[in-house]
């Protein structure tokens, strides 16, 4: 392997992540590994890359809305091919979107739930055109089409069902060559049929799983790998030149405590408010995250992770106030709340949980941490006998517009305890619901004001208790501009 | 009882000596088969009663799939049948040499997963055994045979530490020192072909050997010490046999029994130790396959792995037993 | 000419404990020297000092000198001493069982030993010659055998062959016959004597078997607590020992005491009655059972272990008040019979008071009637129980005595066997063999048996300790009407403890009759051979009032033949 | 399966004095050292958390502060005092190991003792089950049990997650005791002391538990000490598999696993719990050694 610190990028790189994907289907798994890979091999209608131009066309030549916002038209580039050489037509796009629409519960469950619930029908007027009929305007659609789930797959492959996912095919910059799930090693090589023929340096990617973060870092230092993903904050002080932090990747999302409203203790608004008051967010950041974190811990959902949100004031710790809130609740004289935690998804989660557990002792609340594997947590939550859950929301680009409906999921799904993002709904948060409904159709100029209002309302109702923003850091052997990422999982490669 | 209760030579020669010996060899074989079957049966029922529903996990417990879809998947995986029926299916498959397919990756056969992982793990175990036996026996003999109290004490201290230190800790310290500081060996990972792969095996093997070597070393030292004080060794020494010759010709073979016995007893611990270390070093052995399989409730894979490791342990024990008998026919009593 | 071996005033310590004090001995070529003494008296240490093996157990020669063939080897370290002594001194170690490498074939062990000395390859013929020299037929099977496939006698010969391989001029043999049968023992001793004469070998034989020393050596050294207490010509020393310790040792030989008398045991520690100075003390009249006499009987007894029949058509019966001796060569089935009689092994042909033994675990009222004393005194006690606890447990469970009564009874019984004070609170590990055997006896008595079966009760014990146990058994039969079955291969012991003797050979009774008759008018050749190995067996004659202990008082059949030549003419049976 | 081959020692000849006496004084000292280590650590495990002003879960200081007068062993990545945590963790670990092994040893030995008195068929059945359990890769068991039991609080008062580990240790550890006890008991059964007991008419239970059982105690104890070494290391490694005791209860293995990556920047965080595991293991090993177990696994 090349010597350490040589800035020259060869045409083959090795990326080490902490696990291999449980599934390659982004509809089944939203883990970083899966999305990271999907972005490499998957073709999308619009481009996710490079932050600012998110939503710009990729496989699509254009994505345009009708003036009433109720019809979107996607024009495909001509001569598109999948990596296996077969032609990519609008039929494939329709099949791909229908697959998502027909997947049960997606509308309510997934990141893309809001956009999906606003799409009525997808049709293909001709081989190069796709038309989306909307039930309500959704200005963020172009950006939404670049989320990992929106990968375009061959209709014939989709028809094959599960077996397609043994070796999926799409029209991304790379194609999957070997999928060695037993050895935790995937290889990808440049897709010869990629629409963009501009010469690119990297022709081959090895994607390996190295469970232990220290080993990952060690392998990076010794030159075995070129890019190590997901390095815990307290290791970052070991990252010294010539290694570089992929600072673009820092924003790893936000962590909060989801609430089981059916739980007699945690379901009580006063208890939630008390918890929120008793949590010392500065301490969480300092001790659990090794001080490595972006932004301040704030309320709400992705869009208010901006570093400059005015809601920072609401996060101050106040034990006296917290205790006062507990008067008359089940926790007045101490109580126990089961806290479900996932230990194998992000290194931050168990640490934050422990700090919170310790902090809540001050108001007599005993958190009983229950570790659950990532793969089983949804199931576990459905069982119902839990109070709080350390939710970690991955963060997509700062796209205020398209995730408008995110905050307040579709009550029709009836699922108020799901994992992926829709927050639990209960009838007693009418204010929040009304605001959220307004946001779904708001113009982009009206949105920021609405968001502030939502945040205020949110702070009162606390459908979930925000804790902190998270860092999700990759380390590269090359200077920072050579390999970096956008969001948490979109790798930008030379 | 009296010392003279020995079978007379005449008694041995009469009767089918070869037949008896065959029978004596066959009975461990039968036992080994029974044990392997037991392992299979226990595993089958244990995982199915202990662990949850693979269908839910497979579909992605997190996406909230409909009960119908889960039921369909259960039927597809054959999990809807009653346990005994499932067991019969499994056994029928086994009889055809078919371990089934992975739940998680339906086109992957369990055999390929297991063989793949086992290749790595048993290569690791093999290297560990090699290192431990060479170092353990060598140093053990030196410590027992040489008259160097200081050396002996150093060895004692080292073996105590090796014995008591947790493998994972040693592994990580090794990674951080040998691999990073000295850049001698890769800090983990796995290559693509064999001579190349050995360099990835060295550190993990050393890590596990840290535990096994002291055990062998101590046994050898103890046994060798005893043998050296046995009258035959003393009189050989008194007749003028050199120390080296005595150690090699007489003491070493007499240590073989305890060493073999220890290896036999340690095998399953050894494999478990290897699994932990594999995970630390990121080797694609059965350890990784197994943690993944348990996490995703991939029953056929769990079963295949347990069956394979169980069978390997049993077969190795069988070989050890036969070897012990060949080395020391008294063991066959 | 210098002596072949000259040990002068050596003092040896092991880890600061003095084990040898001023030991001296000397030996010329062709001469045989015996060393006798009780266990722990330093016999083995003396040999170790000569061969240089002291250092391996942390011993040191503090002072004195050892010259071998004129060379001073006292301070030579082990390794160079091995070189110096190679081809001069060889040794046959104690414990023949582990004197051969258990894993190597006999042929290769012999070959290796031969090559050690000559540094050239030893041919197959050399190996054969070496084995023939110790009167073994070097068949291919023998050469390919491993030690555990040989009998004790054969093994001992191979060990001797190894020792002779370097063609030594001095052979040191440590207890070469202890583990062997009477017949094998005499052939091994004959072998020594033969070699000595053939090769002009200097021979040191260490043994506590006085008969062996008597028949195979010219001179003897008696050791006691690490000192040489007496040296002299074997015949003289044994006939008229001068040192009190030697007197005691020789006197304790059961052969030397006429039947019907207590053996001469060491003073102080043993039965007071039996230890009166000088003269013999007669055993008082035995208690005679009255009324219904319990009996144990084997009738037409056949017994097999698996498909191997070890007992054929045995008839024996013992009643309370009777004494039966069972003798026979090793493996003849004596212990098996003893176990059958006590119900340890099941058989319907053995009855106690007319009823067969129940299997283990079943309730049987007559269970306590027959009790067993076993050979290994340490192994027959539960190692975690103190002497008192063992006996107390027996009192409580068998006799169903309440706790206090059991305690008192146990103390009484222990005192009756000569154990008092602190001793009763010790565990077997801290008791001597003789003491353990006493506990064992006391425990058996706690069951209040009518019949006591003793399987080799003294063969693991030193002579003087043996005398104590024999005396104890004698005393016990005088106190109560006890039936006694004594199993032993030692005719002399049996002669004291039996009225009737059965002789067993390969699972059959070959001769049976009153003790007098079997011992002094043996009919079966096997019995004759047994008797002839005991030169001093005393008939049941009262010693004269002025008789001193010794062979003169009870001259055996071969008493005045010169030692060392006596058994030479007998052809050697190949084992 | 394979038993350690012992040369037949004829009873008629007591073992040569040399082998009996060779190393006794040394051994006693070793046992004493071993015992001192284990007992000393056990006391410290109990006392230190009791008298310490800070609790093991207090987050009171800078994270990763090096050892100082205030924090003797420094602080961990959350800013908790490692000194208190280490000792409290030791208490859990030691308790877990002792209890699990005691149960395994007792159960296994009992089964072996009973097996020794069963007819050949019963004995064969037990032997095969024992072999099968020994052939079973226990690590699978640990992972599966942990997955199945989760870290729910099975036994009130016990740290959550402890039950799974403990059960797994018990299941993995019993077979050697059964094997050892059975083979020894079969030998002892033929021993003269048992023959004598039977001749006295003692019942099978009495023979089993008064005359055979006690003789096995020391063998089993020495084996248990040996196993404690292995188990100490094992429990210390389990956390690396993501199996273990739930926070906030500190556990030595988890303390190491969670912080091993910090070795280059804050060695004290992983090393100190590691050292405690090591010292504890050495204590057990010394005890096992001197208890005279030949079988050093
Ligand atoms: N390895 C040893 N370390 C310390 N003392 C020993 C050792 N071996 C023997 N002794 C002591 O040395 C003394 C002499 O022992 P030695 O073996 O010479 O007796 P022995 O006459 O050969 O007895 P036996 O008839 O039992 O073989 C005894 O007091 C014994 O306790
Ligand atoms: N448990 C056993 N199983 C099988 N064979 C046995 C057993 N015990 C003894 N034997 C055999 O039975 C025969 C008689 O043995 P036994 O112990 O009764 O002889 P012995 O006369 O007491 O001999 P020794 O004088 O050596 O004590 C021997 O050939 C022996 O090998
Ligand atoms: Mg001796
Ligand atoms: Mg016998």
TrEMBL record, chain B:
Topology of the protein relative to the lipid bilayer: Multi-pass membrane protein
Localization per record: Cell membrane
UniProt KW Thylakoid keyword: no
Signal peptide residue numbers: none
Highest taxon above the source species: Bacteria
A Pfam family assignment: BPD_transp_1
Homology family: Belongs to the binding-protein-dependent transport system permease family.
Name of the protein in question: ABC transporter permease
From TrEMBL, chain C:
Gene3D superfamilies for this protein: P-loop containing nucleotide triphosphate hydrolases
Pfam families assigned: ABC_tran, oligo_HPY
Biased composition range(s): Basic and acidic residues: 558-575
Assigned keywords, A-Z: ATP-binding, Nucleotide-binding, Transport
UniProt region (Disordered), positions on chain: 534-575
Domain ABC transporter: 5-250, 296-531
PROSITE patterns for this protein: ABC_TRANSPORTER_1, ABC_TRANSPORTER_2
Protein name, entry field: ABC transporter ATP-binding protein
Record organism: Streptomyces rugosispiralis
Organism classification: Bacteria, Bacillati, Actinomycetota, Actinomycetes, Kitasatosporales
UniProtKB/TrEMBL annotation, chain D:
The keyword Plastid is assigned to this record: no
Transmembrane residue ranges: 32-52, 94-120, 132-150, 162-180, 221-245, 265-288
Gene3D superfamilies per UniProt: MetI-like
Compartments, as annotated in UniProt: Cell membrane
UniProt-listed InterPro entries: BP-dependent_transpt_permease (IPR050366), MetI-like (IPR000515), MetI-like_sf (IPR035906)
Keyword Membrane: yes
SUPFAM superfamilies reported for this sequence: MetI-like
Region of interest (Disordered), residue spans: 1-24
Alphabetic keyword roster: Cell membrane, Membrane, Transmembrane, Transmembrane helix, Transport
Major localization listed first in the record, in broad terms: membrane
Domain ABC transmembrane type-1 span(s) in chain numbering: 90-288
Recorded topology in the membrane: Multi-pass membrane protein
Annotated family: Belongs to the binding-protein-dependent transport system permease family.
PANTHER family: D,D-DIPEPTIDE TRANSPORT SYSTEM PERMEASE PROTEIN DDPC-RELATED (PTHR43386:SF1), OLIGOPEPTIDE TRANSPORT SYSTEM PERMEASE PROTEIN APPC (PTHR43386)
Protein's name according to its UniProt entry: ABC transporter permease
């Amino acid at each position: 392997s090349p010597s350490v610190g040589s800035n020259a990028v060869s045409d083959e790189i090795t990326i080490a992540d902490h696990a291999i994907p449980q599934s390659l289907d982004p509809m089944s798994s939203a883990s970083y590994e899966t999305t990271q890979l999907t972005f490499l091999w998957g073709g999308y209608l619009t481009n996710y890359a490079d932050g600012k131009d998110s939503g710009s066309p990729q496989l699509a030549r254009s994505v345009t809305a009708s003036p009433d916002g109720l019809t979107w038209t996607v024009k495909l580039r001509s001569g598109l091919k999948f990596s296996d050489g077969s032609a990519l037509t609008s039929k494939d796009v329709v099949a791909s979107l229908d697959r998502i629409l027909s997947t049960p519960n997606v509308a309510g469950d997934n990141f893309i739930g809001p956009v999906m619930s606003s799409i009525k029908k997808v049709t293909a007027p001709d081989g190069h055109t796709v038309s989306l009929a909307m039930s309500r305007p959704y200005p963020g659609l172009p950006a939404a089409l670049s989320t990992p789930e929106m990968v375009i797959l061959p209709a014939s492959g989709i028809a094959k069902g599960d077996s397609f996912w043994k070796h999926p095919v799409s029209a991304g910059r790379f194609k999957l060559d070997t999928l060695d799930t037993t050895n935790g090693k995937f290889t990808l090589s440049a897709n010869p049929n990629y629409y963009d023929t501009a010469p690119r340096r990297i022709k081959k990617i090895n994607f390996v799983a190295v469970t232990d973060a220290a080993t990952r870092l060690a392998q990076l230092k010794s030159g075995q790998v070129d890019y190590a993903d997901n390095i815990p904050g307290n290791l970052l002080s070991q990252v010294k030149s010539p290694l570089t932090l992929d600072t673009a990747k820092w924003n790893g999302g936000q962590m909060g405590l989801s609430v089981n409203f059916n739980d007699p203790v945690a379901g009580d608004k006063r208890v939630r408010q008390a918890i929120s008051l008793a949590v010392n967010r500065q301490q969480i950041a300092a001790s659990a995250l090794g001080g490595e974190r972006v932004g301040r811990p704030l309320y709400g959902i992705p869009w208010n992770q901006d570093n400059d949100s005015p809601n920072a004031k609401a996060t101050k710790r106040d034990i006296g106030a917290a205790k006062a809130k507990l008067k008359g609740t089940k926790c007045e004289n101490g109580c126990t709340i089961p806290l479900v935690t996932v230990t194998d998804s992000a290194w931050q989660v168990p640490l934050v949980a422990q700090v919170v557990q310790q902090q809540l002792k001050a108001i007599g609340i005993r958190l009983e941490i229950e570790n659950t594997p990532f793969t089983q947590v949804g199931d576990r939550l459905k069982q119902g006998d839990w109070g709080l859950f350390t939710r970690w929301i991955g963060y997509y680009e700062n796209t205020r517009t398209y995730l408008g409906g995110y905050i307040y999921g579709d009550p029709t799904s009836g699922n108020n305890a799901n994992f992926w993002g829709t927050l639990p709904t209960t009838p007693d948060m009418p204010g929040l619901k009304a605001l959220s409904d307004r946001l779904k159709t708001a113009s982009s100029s009206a949105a920021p004001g609405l968001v502030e209002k939502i945040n205020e309302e949110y702070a009162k109702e606390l459908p979930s208790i925000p804790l902190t923003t998270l860092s999700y850091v990759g380390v590269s052997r090359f200077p920072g501009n050579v390999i970096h990422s956008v969001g948490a999982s979109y790798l930008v490669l030379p | 009882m009296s010392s003279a209760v020995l079978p007379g030579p005449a008694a041995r020669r009469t009767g089918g000596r070869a037949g008896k010996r065959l029978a004596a060899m066959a009975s461990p074989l039968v036992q080994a088969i029974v044990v392997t079957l037991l392992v299979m049966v226990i595993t089958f029922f244990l995982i199915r009663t202990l662990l949850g529903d693979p269908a839910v996990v497979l579909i992605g417990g997190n996406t909230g799939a409909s009960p119908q879809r889960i039921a369909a998947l259960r039927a597809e995986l054959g999990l809807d049948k009653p346990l005994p029926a499932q067991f019969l299916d499994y056994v029928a498959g086994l009889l055809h040499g078919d371990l089934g397919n992975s739940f998680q990756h339906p086109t992957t056969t369990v055999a390929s997963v297991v063989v793949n992982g086992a290749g790595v793990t048993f290569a690791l175990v093999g290297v560990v055994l090699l290192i431990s036996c060479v170092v353990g026996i060598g140093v053990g003999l030196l410590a027992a045979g040489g008259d160097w109290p200081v050396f002996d004490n150093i060895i004692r201290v080292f073996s105590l530490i090796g014995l008591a230190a947790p493998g994972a800790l040693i592994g990580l310290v090794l990674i951080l020192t040998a691999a990073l500081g000295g850049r001698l060996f890769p800090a983990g990972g796995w290559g693509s072909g064999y001579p190349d792969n050995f360099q990835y095996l060295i550190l993990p093997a050393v890590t596990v050997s840290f535990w096994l070597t002291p055990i062998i070393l101590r046994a050898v030292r103890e046994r060798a010490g005893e043998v050296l004080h046995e009258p035959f060794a003393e009189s050989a020494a008194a007749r003028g046999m050199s120390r080296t010759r005595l150690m090699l010709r007489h003491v070493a073979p007499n240590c073989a029994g305890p060493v073999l016995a220890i290896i036999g007893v340690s095998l399953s611990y050894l494999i478990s130790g290897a699994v932990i270390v594999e995970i630390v070093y990121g080797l694609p052995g059965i350890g990784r396959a197994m943690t993944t399989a348990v996490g995703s409730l991939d029953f056929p894979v769990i079963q295949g792995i347990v069956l394979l490791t169980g069978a390997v342990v049993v077969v190795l024990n069988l070989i050890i037993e036969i070897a012990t008998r060949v080395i020391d026919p008294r063991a066959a009593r | 000419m210098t002596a072949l071996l000259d040990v002068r005033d050596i003092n040896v310590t092991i880890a600061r404990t003095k084990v040898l004090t001023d030991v001296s001995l000397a030996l010329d070529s062709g001469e045989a020297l015996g060393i006798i003494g009780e266990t722990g008296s330093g016999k083995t240490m003396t040999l170790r000092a000569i061969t240089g093996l002291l250092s391996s157990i942390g011993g040191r020669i503090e002072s004195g000198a050892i010259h071998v063939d004129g060379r001073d080897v006292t301070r030579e370290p082990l390794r160079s001493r091995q070189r110096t002594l190679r081809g001069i001194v060889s040794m046959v170690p104690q414990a023949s069982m582990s004197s051969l490498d258990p894993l190597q074939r006999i042929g290769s062990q012999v070959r290796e030993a031969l090559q050690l000395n000559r540094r050239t390859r030893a041919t197959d013929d050399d190996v054969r010659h070496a084995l023939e020299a110790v009167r073994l037929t070097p068949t291919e099977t023998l050469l390919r055998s491993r030690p555990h496939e040989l009998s004790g006698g054969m093994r001992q010969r191979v060990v001797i062959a190894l020792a002779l391989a370097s063609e030594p001029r001095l052979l040191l043999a440590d207890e070469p016959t202890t583990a062997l049968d009477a017949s094998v023992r005499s052939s091994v001793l004959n072998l020594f004597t033969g070699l000595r004469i053939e090769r002009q070998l200097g021979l040191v034989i260490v043994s506590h078997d006085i008969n062996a020393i008597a028949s195979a050596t010219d001179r003897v050294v008696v050791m006691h607590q690490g000192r040489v207490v007496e040296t002299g010509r074997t015949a003289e020393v044994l006939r008229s020992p001068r040192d009190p310790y030697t007197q005691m040792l020789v006197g304790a030989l059961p052969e030397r005491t006429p039947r019907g008398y207590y053996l001469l045991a060491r003073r102080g520690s043993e039965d007071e009655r039996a230890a009166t100075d000088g003269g013999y003390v007669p055993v008082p009249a035995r208690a005679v059972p009255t009324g219904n006499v319990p009996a144990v009987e084997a009738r037409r007894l056949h017994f097999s272990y698996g498909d191997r029949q070890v007992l054929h058509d045995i008839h024996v019966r013992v009643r309370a008040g009777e004494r039966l001796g069972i003798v026979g060569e090793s493996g003849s089935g004596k212990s098996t019979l003893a176990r059958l009689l006590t119900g340890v092994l099941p058989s319907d042909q053995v009855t106690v008071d007319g009823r067969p033994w129940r299997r283990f675990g079943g309730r049987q009222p007559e269970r306590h009637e027959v009790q067993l004393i076993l050979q290994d005194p340490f192994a027959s006690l539960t190692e975690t129980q103190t002497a008192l606890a063992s006996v107390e447990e027996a009192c409580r469970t068998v006799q169903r005595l309440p706790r206090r009564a059991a305690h008192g009874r146990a103390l009484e019984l222990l005192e009756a066997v000569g154990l008092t004070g602190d001793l009763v609170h010790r565990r077997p590990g801290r008791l001597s063999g003789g003491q353990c055997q006493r506990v064992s006896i006391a425990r058996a008595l706690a069951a209040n048996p009518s019949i006591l079966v003793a399987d080799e009760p003294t063969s693991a014990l030193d002579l003087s300790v043996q005398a104590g146990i024999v005396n104890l058994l004698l005393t016990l039969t005088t106190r109560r009407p006890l039936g006694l079955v004594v199993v032993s291969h030692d005719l002399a012991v049996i002669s004291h403890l039996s009225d009737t003797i059965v002789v067993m050979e390969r699972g059959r009774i070959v001769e049976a009759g009153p003790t007098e008759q079997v011992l002094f008018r043996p009919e079966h050749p096997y019995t004759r051979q047994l008797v002839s190995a005991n030169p001093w067996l005393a008939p049941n004659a009262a010693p004269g009032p002025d008789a001193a202990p010794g062979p003169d008082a009870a001259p055996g059949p071969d008493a005045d033949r010169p030692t060392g030549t006596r058994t030479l003419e007998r052809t050697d049976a190949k084992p | 399966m394979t038993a350690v081959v012992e040369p037949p020692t004829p009873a008629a000849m007591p073992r040569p004095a040399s082998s009996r006496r060779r190393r006794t004084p040394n051994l006693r000292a070793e046992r004493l050292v071993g015992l001192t280590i284990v007992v000393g650590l056990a006391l410290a495990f109990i006392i230190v958390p009791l008298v310490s002003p800070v609790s093991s879960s207090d987050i009171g200081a800078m994270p990763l502060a090096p050892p100082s007068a205030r924090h003797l062993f420094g602080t961990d990545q959350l800013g908790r005092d490692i000194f208190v945590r280490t000792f409290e963790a030791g208490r859990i670990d030691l308790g877990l190991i002792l209890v699990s092994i005691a149960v395994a040893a007792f159960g296994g030995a009992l089964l072996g003792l009973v097996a020794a008195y069963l007819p050949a068929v019963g004995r064969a059945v037990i032997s095969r089950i024992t072999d099968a359990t020994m052939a079973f890769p226990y690590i699978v068991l640990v992972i599966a049990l942990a997955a199945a039991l989760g870290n729910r609080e099975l036994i009130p008062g016990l740290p959550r997650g402890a039950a799974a580990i403990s059960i797994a240790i018990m299941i993995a550890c019993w077979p050697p005791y059964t094997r050892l006890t059975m083979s020894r008991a079969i030998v002892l059964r033929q021993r003269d002391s048992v023959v004598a007991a039977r001749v006295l008419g003692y019942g099978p239970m009495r023979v089993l538990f008064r005359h055979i059982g006690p003789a096995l105690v020391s063998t089993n104890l020495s084996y248990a000490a040996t196993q404690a070494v292995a188990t100490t290391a094992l429990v210390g490694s389990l956390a690396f598999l993501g199996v273990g005791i739930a926070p906030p209860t500190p556990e030595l293995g988890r303390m190491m696993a969670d912080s091993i990556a910090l070795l280059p920047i804050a060695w004290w965080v992983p090393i100190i719990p590691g050292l405690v595991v090591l010292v504890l293991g050495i204590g057990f090993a010394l005890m096992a050694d001197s208890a005279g177990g030949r079988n050093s696994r």
